[in-house]
Amino acid sequence: MSRIGKKPIPIPDGVTVEVDGSEVKVKGPKGELTRRFDPDMKIAIEDGNIVVTRPTDSREHRSLHGLTRALIANMVTGVSEGYEKRLRVIGTGYRAEMQGNDLRLSLGYSHDILIVPPPTVTFAVEDRGAEVVITSPDKELIGMVAADIRKLRPPEPYKGKGVRYKDEVVRQKAGKAGKVGG
Fold first, then answer.
1. Which pLDDT value is given to residue 127?
2. Which of 18, 22, 89, 136 keeps 20 to 30 A from 154, CA to CA?
3. Pick from 123, 140, 122, 141: which is nearest to 132 by CA?
């Protein structure tokens, strides 16, 4: 049995959940999320909890059981608390700044890069342009946006310059050794 799939998902105060067949709509103070799931998975609301059940013990249904439950739990957490990712911009002349709702990055290229956020994502810049804070109720979308920004200038292993996640550790390599002896 799936240990994750069997756990019921408690619905916090201020969050409403609507189940229409295989489509789940979750509304809360941070926003609204809608997602379609596999029609084989049975999603029901019982005693203030969301319960996911599977029809058989086949390999496919077992894998979908835990996945469906985890995705619904992420939706409930997202609309009630929200998600946040932090990126560090490290390097001489590298910086981030806000231009209205958009994010402008100077990453050592001949031009600045302007990033327009998707509808539910918001950007903020802290620490004098060295840290970008990305917030959204959608966990999947926030991860994709953060990965796309990091991909613009990934941290390089010699000086560590580039864009990295705040808690990411980049292993530094030793550079060339100078000429020794005479």
1. 86
2. 136
3. 123
